[in-house]
Amino acid sequence: xxFSKRFxxxxxxxxxxxxxxxxxxxxxxxxxxxxxxxILMFAGVNIMMTLSLNVVNGFTGQFSIGHAGFMxxxxxxxxxxxTLILKPSVIPASMEIPVFLLSLLVGGLVAAxxxxxxxxxxLKLKGDYLAIVTLAFGEIVRAGLRLIEPIGAARGMIGVPxxxxxxxxxxxxxxxxxxxxxxxxSRFGRAWIAIRDNEIAAEAMGIDSTxxxxxxxxxxxxxxxxxxxxxxxxxSFIQPDTFSFVKSSDLLVFLYAGGSGSLTGSIVGALLxxxxxxxxxxLASWRLVIYALVLVIVMLYxxxxxxxxxxxxxxxxxxxDIYENRGKKISETxxxxxxxxxx
Length: 343
Fold this sequence. Notes:
Layout lengths: L4 H24 L5 H26 L8 H18 L10 H27 L4 H19 L11 E2 L7 H19 L2 H11 L1 H6 L4 H27 L1 E2 L6 H14 L4 H17 L6 H16 L17 H5 L20
Antiparallel strand pairs: 1-2
Helix pairs in contact: 1-6, 2-6, 2-9, 2-10, 2-11, 3-4, 3-5, 3-9, 4-9, 7-9, 10-11
């Protein structure tokens, strides 16, 4: 079945809306409970984080391993707005949603600003050097937050309003998927993919690789900051050690197990690997052994991830989609799979 270009762009949003309706139906029938809903909310936040990391690692070809630092900046930036500045006791109930959305925007902008400042000097580095710098950045943020007393220092912040629910999580996952999908297939995304495939050749064609890598890093940080804000308003408590290197490692596992450079892989990896430990909880401590064994099997038999680099049809844009309005006949080859010599 062929979809129009416009309909394909909003199909992920329609699909998530239908899924949300199904979950609410299952909850009303008693099949799903609050525990299942909470797991789905955590999975939604992890999908956003994995998509944001995919922008840098999967599509731009860099290697960031301190992404939890941006998540923590977004979480604290958002929580400060709703807990210390515009807390529920000083605003009318009708203003809670606008304040919540404002806090998410602030959290995203704080993370994006720091991402830009970090990216300026560091994105000239490559490979292991960039990985070390981003790792150090994540640990600096975590250690710094432990020293700031007004936001709880090492104790963390308590009493964060529980504004986020499954509907908000689904909405922001849909928006993230929509914007990431469209920017990946824009001129920015094509520049990122060119840099990933061959940075020297990209620069020879006039692409300013440092500029585009900074844009990628800043965009990714903004999404991570918004995801952090949602996380803070789901759990109602944040603590610096929650955003340690372990969290960054989890995000890398979600990305590479699902499939780097694939939006579908980010969704599948984050959803499956967030849910799997909970599904195996009946095995007590053995669940961690099974979880690790599953990862080993995936990497041995599917090095490109669970999805194997496959992209769902409505998540990819073909060259035909771009030129269809020009009256040209052109193949439906996805942009990421065009071969050398293709127009």
